[in-house]
Amino acid sequence: MLALNDLTSDLAPLLAAIEEQLNRFTSPCEGSPERLTSAIRYSVLAPGKRLRPLLCLLACEAVSGDWKAALPAACAIEFIHVYSLIHDDLPAMDDDTLRRGRPCCHIQFDEATAILAGDSLQMLAVQVICQELDAQPARESLRILSEAAGRGKLVGGQQDDLAAEGRFGPVNMAELTPLEFLKSIHRRKTSALIEASLQLGGVAGGASLDHLRSLSDYGMAIGLAFQVVDDCLDVESTAEQLGKKTRKDSELGKLTYPSLLGLEPSRALAERLIGEASVAVAVFKDRGLRLARLAQFVVERKV
C-alpha cells in the first residue's frame, strides 16, 4: 500500500505503527458530524508515502530515543501536512482534482467540508501533542509545529507560490534571482514541515542542541531535494504514475527547477543536496543509517 515499503522491509513496523495511530486519532468523536469525520479519515488514511512521520520516528531513533515515543508528534506533523494538501487542492488555490490517486477531498465531498476538514486537522495536531506528551516536550513541539506551519514558513511559502503564477500582478522577488526566489518558496512551503518532522523527533528523543542542529541541516537539505525531484517527476511522469495531474505548473508559467535549470542539472542539484543531508547525519553513526537511506529514496523515488 505504501511506497516506502519498497525501500526496506525494516521500516514496516514503523509504517504499521503510524497507520494504527493515524486511525486511532481520527476515529469518530463526540460532536463531530459523520460527514466531517469521513472527510478527515478519507484524506488522512489515503495511501501515501508517510515521509514526514517516518522522518520524525527515525530522528528520535537517531538521538538514541525509542521511536515509539515520537508517534504522537509523527501523527501531528502528518495532520498538518494533510491539512495543507486539502487546502492547496481547493479551487481558490491550486484547483486540483486528484490527490494520491483519488479524487481530492473537495471533489469527493464538497468545498465547505474540505475546508472544515483541513481546519479540524490543524487543531487535531495541537490536541494530540497536548494530550499525549508531557508539558515541556509538548510546549517545545507546539513551538516547532506552529512556526513551521505559520505565515513565515508553510503558509507564507504558499502565498508566494500563488504570487509566482502572476495572480497578484508583477512578482516581487525582493532582488532575488528567479532561482533564489524559487528556493525561498520551497524552503518554506516544503522544507519547513520536513525540518519540523526531524526536530519533533529529536525533541521526543531528548536530543542535545547540537544534534537538533544536525537534524535541521539534514531536513533542510532533503526538503529542498524532495521539491526538486517533485518538479522533475512532474515533467517526466504521467498522472497515472503520480496519482495527480502533471505539467500543471508549466501550463501556468510557474517557476520550476527544470524550467530554470533543465532536467539533468535539476537532478544533479537534488543529488548534491542528498549528499549534504548524508553528511549532516553522519554524526549519529549507525543510528543515522536509516535516515541516510531514506534520503537516498527521496532522489530515487518515482512517485
Could you describe the largest sheet, including whether it forms a barrel?
Answer: 2 strands, antiparallel
* Total number of helices: 15
Structural class: mainly alpha
| General shape | globular
Give a written overview of the molecule.
It contains 15 helices and two strands. It has helices at 12-25, 34-44, 51-62, 71-88, 105-108, 111-132, 135-149, 154-163, 178-204, 209-236, 239-242, 248-251, 257-261, 263-280, 289-300, and strands at residues 98-99, 102-103. It is globular.
Q: Which terms summarize this structure?
A:
303 residues; single chain; mainly alpha; globular; two-stranded antiparallel sheet; 2 strands
Question: SSE layout and pairings?
Answer:
Blueprint: H1 12-25, H2 34-44, H3 51-62, H4 71-88, E1 98-99, E2 102-103, H5 105-108, H6 111-132, H7 135-149, H8 154-163, H9 178-204, H10 209-236, H11 239-242, H12 248-251, H13 257-261, H14 263-280, H15 289-300
Antiparallel strand pairs: 1-2
Structure described in brief:
This protein is an all-alpha fold. Helices cover 67% and strands 1% of the residues.
